[in-house]
Amino acid sequence: MLASRTRFQHFRALSSVTSAMPQIDNSSDFLSRVPHRKHPGIMRMNVARLPKEAQDAVQTLLQRTVVRHLEDHTTSLNNYLWSRKRPPEDKDLRERAMELEKKFEEKTQFIPDLNIYQKEEKLKNDVLSSLRKKSYHWQPLNYTEQFGLVYLAARFDGGFAAVSRALQEIYQRVPEFSPKTLLDFGSGVGSVTWAAHEIWGKTLKEYMCVDSSASMNTLSELVLKGGSERGQMHISGIHFRQFLPVSPKVQSDLVVSAYSLNELPNFSERERVIQTLWRKTGGFLVLVENGTREGHQLLMEARDIVLKGGDKEVWDHRPACVFAPCPHQLECPKLAGSSQIPCNFVQKYEPLKFSWNSSVSSEKFSFLIFSRGPVGENDKHWPRVVGPVLLRPRHVHCNTCCSDGKLHHDAITAKKHGKDLYRCARKCEWGDRLPAMIANSSPDETDKDPAS
């Protein structure tokens, strides 16, 4: 009882943090047409499931080419990819080396029996040794045929689930969007192709899959052929490339990069690729990364690159607009504090049928979607639920990111906020959008490009 009372007091204290009163936004009169449990702010999917053709192809490939200790390899790879960081920049290493040099120089000069040359040599060795110990050692992944099969077993299902959830955001909010062309950068084993085909298979006519690894392109094609070189392609119109086309003259309706930005060796290369991808975007640019602090910061880095512009080759002058998950184009409030908590989401999925897998798994990921020009103007200001929704008797605790560029915590009640908003809030989950307006905030004023 005491623990429950303590938690209640804690939540009550949190609810006082909010600075604005949310109220139902029924400008489109959606509540007269749908029940609360199906309000248009609900973005979540049911359990994602790879198409049967893709699952069967994976089983065929792995049975034909036996990988020893596959379970251990997939576990190790998943752990490694989850903990992976960006490559350290040369300028950061130089700055760190200068700091260490000053630190060790004071100690070295008081060592007796060393001449000036010996002291310089010791100082150099101490700095290099410290840098090796304290710097992250990023290495590019070597996608051999064997490694590709391990990656297929480890990441095909989870990657498909995360990309499907991100694409669902566009499909549900912009039902008139019917892409004919797709560009997938860092296509790997083809998760994006399968996810996009599941949603827009009737309209998509051309899939451009770009991956620098020839063996991964071959593996992706084998999966599409059911695991056999002589099989028929399950999806037609697919083209594989090892290099990203840079010409801005040919755009794709949908451009996607999933779990690929951390494969680039430095910021300069990431900036070049992001600018090229945006240049090639005719409709939407979708970026997906791990739901870690590192993955989120990669996306925020890309966000700044696109919103601030700076690309010398501008053919399409329609502005870049953040479509999801942010309801604003201001600085991410999750990066404003010292904690640097990542903005991430969770999608449940049915994993590949291996003996070590459970029946349902969860993929934690971060995503970012840009649109060419404003899309969905009526509901763009709806707050995004950025954490678990806590259901309590006669009130609901919601943590949201709002159009004023701030994080809000609200204890929503029927008496204080109205029955409609209260019922909508009770049906929301992490990642959904609350169909509400925040009083005392003006989307038109706060939702501006930071570069303007």
Radius of gyration: 25 Å
Strand composition percent: 15-25%
The termini sit apart by 53 Å
The level 1 CATH classification of the largest domain is: Alpha Beta
User: Considering DSSP H and I runs of 4 or more, what fraction of the residues is helical?
Assistant: 25-40%
Arithmetic mean pLDDT: 85
Q: What is the structural class?
A: alpha/beta
Parts with pLDDT < 50 across at least 5 consecutive residues? 1-19, 441-452
Give the number of helices: 13
The CATH topology of the largest domain: Rossmann fold
CATH superfamily label of the largest domain: Vaccinia Virus protein VP39
- The number of E-state strands comes to 15
Number of domains: 3
SSE order: HEEHHHHHEHEHEEHEHEEEEEEEHHEH
